[in-house]
């Protein structure tokens, strides 16, 4: 299935009332502010600006939906953990993201994007605990910033800490892009979807 090459923007949602109706299976991208979620989506779909990227943490303030033809959707969640965002807005994001993750029937898995230089922060650990049994891929982004030895050590450490697939990833050098795309396409195949 080459669904990723068919990616198109679908909708932005600031609340549960304006989310697209559940349809095809969805894979959500979560992580700290400015960790590279949008860049990872762009790399996976082979587009430069499908998901909007910014050097300003906290820029994504809505849940953004992208359709992969009729077969699937990718969902870019607002980042967490950026202190300069007003408290009220952070609380609103928590409600929005928590509500989506807890109740979206079509969610088949979550890609947790973490900076390979600073993986598994306390907020990352909270998200993993909140997700429970939801299928998880830990994407160690910005892996190009590490030496080969550092990459190996970080990969081994995160694998030992999580019950999840863990991959090194760089949207700059495209390290891990094909591997991750193949893995996620496997998640989307009807035979591999978890039963509710």
Question: What key attributes describe this structure?
Answer:
32% helix; alpha/beta; 196 residues; 22% strand; Rossmann fold; seven-stranded mixed sheet
Protein architecture, described:
This protein is an alpha/beta fold. The chain has one domain: P-loop containing nucleotide triphosphate hydrolases (Rossmann fold), CATH 3.40.50.300. Helix content is 32%, strand content 22%. It has a seven-stranded mixed sheet, sandwiched between helices. Helix 3 (122-131) links the parallel strand 5 and strand 6. Helix 1 (37-45) packs across helix 5 (177-188).
Number of helices: 5
Mean pLDDT: 86
CATH superfamily: P-loop containing nucleotide triphosphate hydrolases
Beginning-to-end CA distance, first to last residue: 23 Å
Largest sheet: 7 strands, mixed
Low-confidence stretches: 54-59
How large is the share of residues in beta strands?
Answer: 15-25%
Number of E-state strands: 7
SSE blueprint and pairings:
Elements: E1 7-13, E2 26-31, H1 37-45, E3 63-68, E4 72-76, H2 87-103, E5 107-115, H3 122-131, E6 136-141, H4 148-161, E7 165-168, H5 177-188
Parallel strand pairs: 2-4, 2-5, 5-6, 6-7
Antiparallel strand pairs: 1-3, 3-4
Helix pairs in contact: 1-5
